[in-house]
Amino acid sequence: MSGIKPSVNEGRAACNVCPHGCLLAKGQVGLCRARGWRNGVVAPLSYGRLTSVALDPVEKKPLARWMSGHYLLSVGSYGCNLRCPFCQNHEIAQAGEEDVPWRYVAPDELVGIALDMRERNPRVAGIAHTYNEPLVSWEYVRDVGVLAHEVGLANTLVSNGCAEPWVIDELAPLVDAANVDLKGFSDQYYHWCGGKLSAVQECIRRLAAEPGCHLEVTCLVVPGRNDSPDEMRALAAWLASVDPDITLHVTRYFPRWKLQTPATPVRTVYELADVAREQLPHVVVGNC
Q: How far apart are alpha carbons 206 and 234 in whole angstroms?
């Protein structure tokens, strides 16, 4: 593993990939269920273990202003370091290795599959790491990215952005496009989701600063939680301060997993998109 090395404390190893900093003993896995003890260090147990594979339009990621009309070989594994009650992919994101079927696909095999698809359809642009949280096995994103770039394929990321800065720095040069969830704009909201707002903000800053990475951001609007105009205005103003060219997706929530609050009114989504447009020129709505 490159980057900052995990520490060892009284026979336990500390994970340094995200702000949770799980301290694990032999046989334990972290909160994300994807990283765990292996030979005295915390390793990505989910590395290459794919639970989901599909060929998706770029627009589905969603990426509104990058390679429109093209496709990405989208892959996911299991595990996530957040616990959003409305998790859209909870069957895999909130699962561990014993909870879902998976198949090991090495980085070179995955790139080979994408190349075969591109030969049949020139509009296949590359690979997307998505569905669960890719950063809990960031090493796989890195290794696939290296090989993909060698053969002219794009390497893209759909993430909650809740990772330590050094992880983002390792990956940023290998990511051609990313969509990061900015779930809300308060510490209270992120506490509800089990994450840390400042970590996601730093991820967005670092990806935005990477010259080769096209960045878009998604905010899922949950009624009664993050749907105030003031919060959207603050969120959009902060994004504009990072890079006014960032595209913001204001997206409608639907009941999922543990949260059965009724779906966001369509009118609310459009009104909040208009609020965001006071600060940002590129704002789109989703799930409406």
A: 20
User: Residue 32 falls within a domain, yes or no?
Assistant: no
CA–CA separation, 196 and 150 (whole Å): 35
What CATH number has the domain bearing residue 149?
A: 3.20.20.70
Q: pLDDT tens across 129-164, in order? A: 999 999 999 999 999 999 999 999 999 999 999 999
Residue 66 sits in which domain range? 46-286
Q: How does pLDDT run across 204-249, given as a tens digit for each residue? A: 999 999 999 999 999 999 999 999 999 999 999 999 999 999 999 9
Length of the chain: 288
Residue 144 CA to its chain's centroid (Å): 16
In a domain, 7, yes or no: no
What global pTM score does this model have? 0.95
Identify the helix (H) or strand (E) that includes residue 37: strand 35-38
User: 2-20: string of b/e by CB count within 10 Å (b at 16+)?
Assistant: ebeebeeeeebbbbbbbeb
